[in-house]
Every structure is written in structure tokens, then in C-alpha cells.
């Protein structure tokens, strides 16, 4: 099997698809300049063979194998290799029917990786097995010699060289089998130890235990028989006693019923007498009613209504009076404050007017003096250095003035000539233009109309609120929000899927069911104050974390019965749950013991939750303390004043009962941390969706404006185009060109006239300045002295004035600003006070009117109450004189009824006695039935109960003694039953059989171990023979190849002094019979030949179908490289070689040569056939 072709697409430097075809079955070479992709072809072969150590292909990750790491738009790398499989002797297992095998490997950005064999997706192991079956294991390669391996061979120690020979000879298989046998022996030894431990620790104690349990069972059977006999006797006595109690209770019930009958007759007689008294009272009351009627009742009702009205009127009267007084006082204060503020404001404004005028004068004077000072300083400096005005000497100034006057005269002459010529040309053109101006005017009118249209459209566009940039930004914002929403929703869905247990799902149990009645699971209702407490709180809550909180037990029943719950659920009704929060004093003591509030905290204080579910949260978290560490939890839990369950931050639990729970945390992360993250994601998702909706609405609103804007924009572009066309057409006419030229000439004439005026003025000024300077030059010395003194005095005076004005201005500036701010505050205060005063005045008027109305209403109500009170007093005096006789009759009736009540009370006591007696009789009957049901032997044995000398004769025994004896027997039976094994006899025989089975297994294991030791000895001997044979063969080939590459030299492998072949091998080299002591005596090229000869000798021992060599001749000269090429061509005819080399001596011996080059930043390959082969 050999390579026929390679296709590279996006792999390393091969950005485009490159197909390398025409590989020779024997000798192929690859050459090219550095960096053109020679070694990348070898890397692609290793990539397809399934290499896992990417450092061997000079990459840190699979992404680095993609062209420019995927940054150039190419996002995947694909390599396909087609193998010729016509030689069935070298065919991979399972592919004997295929003449060609195409293996493809592809890696995509992000690390995705896939394999294909003949176009079918396969697993990585399938490809590895295919190549390993033909000795092409790329992860333990002896067919792959990359850059640097030659140097590594030279530095190997004797055991490492021996391991290379073992790899080539295949004796590693024996070592692997030996290691497997050793592991099996270790397992057998462990099994023997296990069996001995089973016999000693398990079976032998069980045998002894079963023997003891058999004795215990026999004693238990004896106690059961005795207990059964005594129980029958005691049950018979209980049965007879119960029958007697039933008869006695029934007799007592009859007596009590007779007594009740007598008392009921007395009650009826008393009721008749009370009825007669009622009739007499009714007659008297009827008589009183006829005389007085219902006048008193009506008067009292009317009085109550009037008193209520009077009270409310009095309250309203007082409130109105107080409101009026307060309002008037407030208005008085506001008027006084307003008057004060207005007076102060007027004073301040007068001061501000005066200060403002003074301030402005001072500031103007200061600025003027500062400017005068600067001019005086400049003048003084110029005079002191002998210069004036322009900073030059008088002589130079005189020359400059004369030159300036001359230049102005020249420009005047030139401008007059140009102006005259332009005016003559302008007159001629104007006469020509006037004869053809009508068409030009029409064209200008057309342009003006189109310009008006453009201006109108431009104005409409400017007036629209639509903005293209804002619309684009809104669309981009919408797309960004959609991407963010999808990402947040995916993350939230992933977390929600992992937290399904935290969600409570149910079907509404009835129509119009209010979902607010279900608060949700405990874990969804809480927010942890800090993530570090999550583990502790999860442990503290345990399974209660998933309990469901509802409002009442009614909701609980509805959900459990008709909510179609899919999981078993515990429900907490808030109206029934009993909160169990630790007392504050206990928490305080625990914190003192634990070292402070930061060390010990109540679990309830570490979570936030809605107030309405506080009872449920107290039940879940209120009884547990959270401690910072194990030591603190231990001290707090077992302290006598605390004795409370504690949980550490790591989830370890201390219980006052003495238990300690802990160990590894639950896998998958903290539920509460994930819930917190899920809540944040849900809030973020809600915000994103809200923003997305708003953005969509804005975009929809913009769409109509966008359409109108686009239509106007199109009209504007068309109008502008029409305007430009008209302007271009008009500009191209001769009339327009004539008009432009006339306008240009007119402008030129205007500019020349202005220039003439400027030049004449400049000429006059320069002449006057020259005349003045000539006079100064004549009297230069006196002039300078006068100018110096004058400038010095002016400077001194200017400094004094500037300092004085500046000081005054700065002093008044702060006062002016303070005064202005005070006036502003006073104006605000006056406006506010006026508004408040107006409002208070209006309120006072309204309150005064309300007060007058309340006063009149209160007076009327008071008069009504007084009148009704007098009438009622009069009516009561009339009735009181006639009611004494009625009172006596009522007293007599009450006495009769009181006697009846006493009799009824006694009847109830008797009825209660009857119930007790009936209950006693019923209990006895139930006891009888229960005994009959529990002991079916009673009916058949009833006739013998209590017979003297019989089985059921309890005359000789007291019932208390029998009960005590029964109690003792039951306790003894219970003690024996605690450790009782009823199958002890059967299990004893089974355990003895198991003991014999274990002994048999032990013998089998010992025999297996003996056989394995013998097999290991055989493997060692077979490995030794094979390795000695391989060493001899490799040694011969090593010597032959080295002498071929370097004539006159000898090389061999031999053990180090004092050691054997199986201990290690070292390389020895000689020249003409003289052996070198060390390889360090050789040159670099000789050392490379030695290493290469050794590697080739090992390759020759057990040839593979393919060999890959990468610049193995880098350190060799041309003659040695030529020899290696010839040797490979002659000695390795049954394998395919793919060699990368930069030397002619190597690749000129190849049958096919591939040259790599760089084209447009990518590698390309050119094939050449060696014509000399």
C-alpha cells in the first residue's frame, strides 16, 4: 500500500485547493525554498494518519492548521490521501476488496474534527486501527523521521537504544504481555488475601454466630409456649369480668332514667306556673302601653339622633374657628414679611443702580488705562533704542516712506491704463449684448423657477424630523438586541433545563384559579445575600429547598387532588405552618461562643424573601446556625446553652444528637448560585426584550417617514439634475458667455477704481510722512531727547493710572456681584410671598363663610337636644309610678325559672352518668367482641372458664400476679426476639457449604497463579531469543549501511562493559580497525551518518509500507547525501519513501521530484519525473 495522490485545501500555507498527484511507489523527494511549504506536505500526511501530538506537526492547536489560523476568510482545512491497495499482502484488515483507499480528515474553526474513508464518515479509532494494521502507528512511529530526530538518537543512553531495537523487533509485545501477567498475578494475590480475609473475618464468625442463634431460638420457642398458656388463662378471666360489668352497668342505667323522669315532671309543673305569671305581667304592661304608648322609646331615639348631630356640629364649629384663626395669623405674617422684603429690595436696587454705573465706569477706565500703559511701554522702548513707530531708525523710515510713495505712483498709472482699456471693452460688449438679451432672460427665468422648486424641496426635507443615520442606527441596534436576546435566552434555557426541579408545574385545579395563591418553591423565593453562603444554606434546607409554599391548606388539597402534579411534592400552607425561629438570645450566645457575628449567623438572616412567606422561611431556615468553620460549629452545637444544629460554609453539619455529616460536595455546582445567575439572566432578558420592542416600535414609526423622505429625496435629485442641465445649457450659449464676460469686466472696473483710491491715499500719506521724517532727521539729537523725556513721563503716568483704576475696579467687582445675587434672591422671595399671601387671603374668606354656617348649625342642634331631654324626663316620671307591681311579678317568675335551671342541671348530670354507664357497658361489649375476634378459641372454651381444677381455674391465682408474670414473659420474649434468627438452623448448613466453596476457590486461584508464573518465564525466554536475533540482524545492517555511506569505517552495537544485551546497547565506531572511545571524537557530519545508519538499519529489519524523512541530510555534505540517496534506492525497494531535502545529491536520486513555491501568498507544487531512473 502506497500513496498515489494528496489533495490539500486550506491546510497551513496551502490556502487554495492543491492536488499533488503522481507519487512514485518507491522514491519521492520534495524540495523548494525555505518557507514554501515542503514540510507542510509531510505534516498533512501525519495529519491524515491521525497524529494527536500536534507539536510534531509544529502546531499548538487544530485551529493553527487552518490557513492563516482562519483569519483570511478560510475557516476549514481538508487533506485527502489516496492509497494504492492493489498489493493485497499489505492491505489493511477489512479493505482487501478495495484497490484504492481514500482517507480524508477535515478540521473546522472552533476545533470540530471529522474523518472520512472512501467518502463515509467514520470514528477516529477506525482510522487509527486501519493504519496500525499496516504498521503505520503515527503516535508511536518508527516510519517517521522528522527534523531533529537524528540528533536525539545520538544523545540516547544504552537502555533507550535497546528500546528502539525492541520497538523494531516487536518484542514490546512480550513486555506488554508480561506486564499484563504481572498484573494478573497481583490480582490473584489480592484474591487470595481476600479469600483468607473472608474465611477469617466473615465465614468463621458467622458459623459461631449461627450456633449461638440456634440455641437462642430453642429457648425462645420454650418461652412462647409458656406465654401462650398463661395468656389464655388471663384472657378467660378478662372475658368473664367484662360480661359481669355489662350486666351491672345496664342495671344502673335503668335506675338513673327513672330519676330523670321524675325531675322532668317537676320542670313541666314550674313552666306552667311561670306562664301564668307572664300572662299577669302582659296584662299590666298592656295597660301601661295604652296609657303611655311608645312615646318614651320614640323620644329616646330622637334624642340619640339629635345628640349625634350636635356633637358633629360642635366639632365642625371648633375646626372652622381654628382654621380661620390660623389662616388669619398666617396672612398677617406673610404681609409683614412681604413688606420687609419689598423695602429691602427697593433699597438694594437703588444701591445696585448706583454701583452698576460706578462699576462700569471703573471697568472702562481700567481697560483704557491698561491699553494706554501698553502703548506707552512700546513707545518708550522704541524711543530708548533709537527707533520710532515701525521699530526702525529715522533714516530707514524716511527711505521706506519715499519708496512707498514711488510704488503707489507706479500702481496708480498702471491701474488708470487698465481701467481705461476695460471700460472701452465693456461699452462695446454691452452694445452687442443688448441686441440679443430677450432669449437669455427667458433662460434665466426658467433657471429661477427650477431653483425655486429645488429650494422648496430642500426646505421640506430640512423640515422633516427623519434622519437616515438615526434610522440606520436603530436598525443596527435592533439587530444587536436580537442577537443579545437570543444569546441570553439560550443561556437562560440551558440553566432552566438544569434547574427543572426548582420549578413547580401544575394544572389549575379549578376554573378561574388564582395563581397568586401559589407562591412557588422555597429556592425560587429566596435571594442569598452572598454566594459564599450558598452551600451552607442548601445543606441547612436540604429537601425543604424544593417544598412549595401556598396560602392555605385548601389550596394544598386542591393541588394534590386535581393539580396533576408530575412529581412527589411537599406543600407548605402559610396559615397552618408553625414557624420555628431560634430566640434572639440563643443566637447572641452562639455568636459570643463562636467569636462574633461574622463567625456565626442565623441561616434565616442570610436570605431575602417576600414578607408574606416569612412563616415558611422561618420553618425552613429559622432553626439552623451557619458557622464559618468546623471548629466554630463544633463549639456552638454542643454548648449547653445553645444545643442547636449548625452548618459550616463547606456544608458540614453538626447535630446536637452527636451526628456529623460532611464529605464531597454535590456535583454540578451550587443550585442557589445557578438560581441567582438564572434570575439575573431573566431580568436581563426582560430588559432586552423591552428594549427590542421599543426599538421595533420606533423603527415601524420611522418607516412611513422614511418612505416620504425617500420620495422627496428622489424628487430633489431629479430637480437638481434638471437645474444643472439648464444651467449647463445656458452657460454653453454665446449670449451667456457674453454676459459672463460683461460681468467680469464690470467687476474688474470696480476693483480698479477702488485700487486707484487706495493707492492715491497711500501716496499722499507716504509723502506727508516723508516730509515729517526729513524735518526730524535734520534735528535728530534734540528730537531724540525730547521724545525720550516725553515717553518716560507718559509711561510713569500710565503706570500710576493703570494701578489706581485696576485697584478700584477689583475692589468694586466683588461688591457688585454680591449685591446682584442678594437682589435676585429678594425678588424670588417677594414673588413667592405675594403668591402665598393671595392664596391665604382666598382661603381665609372661604373659611370665614364655612365658620358662620357651622356656628348657626351648632346653635340649632343644641336647642333641639335641650328640648328632647326635657320631654324624656317628664315621660319617665309618669311611667315610674306604675311599674312596681310588674317588678314583683317578674321577680316571682325569675325564682320559678331559677328552680327549673337547677333541676335541668341535675338532669344533665344524670344524663352524663347514663352516658358514662352506657359507654362503660359498650366498651365492655366491644372488649368481649374484641376478645372473641382476637381469640377464636373463646366460644368453644367458654363453658370451662372458672371451673375448679380445670385449665381455666384462676381461683388459686390473683389477677395482678398473672398480669405481672405475663409482663415478665413478654419482656423475656422481646429480649430473645431482638436478635432472633428463625432460620439459624437452615443458615448454619448453608454457611458450612459456603465455607467449603471458598476453600475450593482458594485452591483454584493458587493453581492459576502458579501457571502465570510459568508463562512469564516462557515469555522472558522468548523475548530474549527474539531480541538477541534482532540485535544481530540490526547490527549487521548497521555495519553494512555505515560502511556503504562512509567507506573504510566500521560501526556496531554492543552492550556496555560488564552488562548484557538485555541491559542496553551503545554505538561504537571505528576507522580502519581503530575503534573510537566516544562519539564526541567524530565530526558533525560523521555523527549524523552514524545516527542515520542506525535508524535505517532498524527500518530495514521490519519494513513498513511508507517512510517519511524530513531533511535528514541537513548536516551532510554532497557526497554523503548522494550515497544515502543511492542506498535508499537500492536497499528499500519494498517501501515508499517521501523525503524532504534541499540537496541535489538526495533528490536527484528520486524517481519523482516535487518542487514547492510561493504564489500570491500561498504554496503551490510542481511535479518532475527523473529521466535517469
Q: Any idea what the shape is?
A: flat
Number of strands: 25
Helix/strand class: alpha+beta
Distance between the termini: 22 Å
The radius of gyration is 61 Å
Family: Belongs to the SMC family. SMC2 subfamily.
Organism: Pieris macdunnoughi
Coiled coil: 178-277, 359-439, 671-705, 735-850, 900-934
Subcellular location: Nucleus
Task: Give me the secondary-structure topology.
Blueprint (H helix, E strand, L loop, with lengths): L1 E8 L8 E4 L5 E6 L5 H12 L26 E9 L15 E9 L3 E6 L2 E3 L1 H9 L11 E2 L3 H6 L3 H12 L2 H121 L2 H90 L9 H41 L3 H26 L4 H31 L19 E4 H4 L1 E2 L5 H8 L6 E3 L2 H10 L8 E3 L10 H11 L5 E3 L4 E2 L5 H8 L3 E3 L2 H8 L8 E3 L4 E2 L5 E2 L9 H61 L2 H45 L1 H101 L3 H51 L3 H4 L17 H20 L5 H62 L3 E6 L11 E6 L2 E2 L8 H18 L4 E5 L7 H14 L4 E5 L3 H4 L4 E8 L2 E8 L4
Parallel strand pairs: 3-23, 3-24, 8-22, 11-12, 15-16, 22-23
Antiparallel strand pairs: 1-2, 1-4, 4-5, 5-6, 6-7, 9-11, 10-14, 13-15, 16-17, 17-18, 19-20, 20-21, 24-25
Helix pairs in contact: 4-22, 5-19, 5-21, 5-22, 6-18, 7-17, 8-16, 9-16, 13-15, 22-23
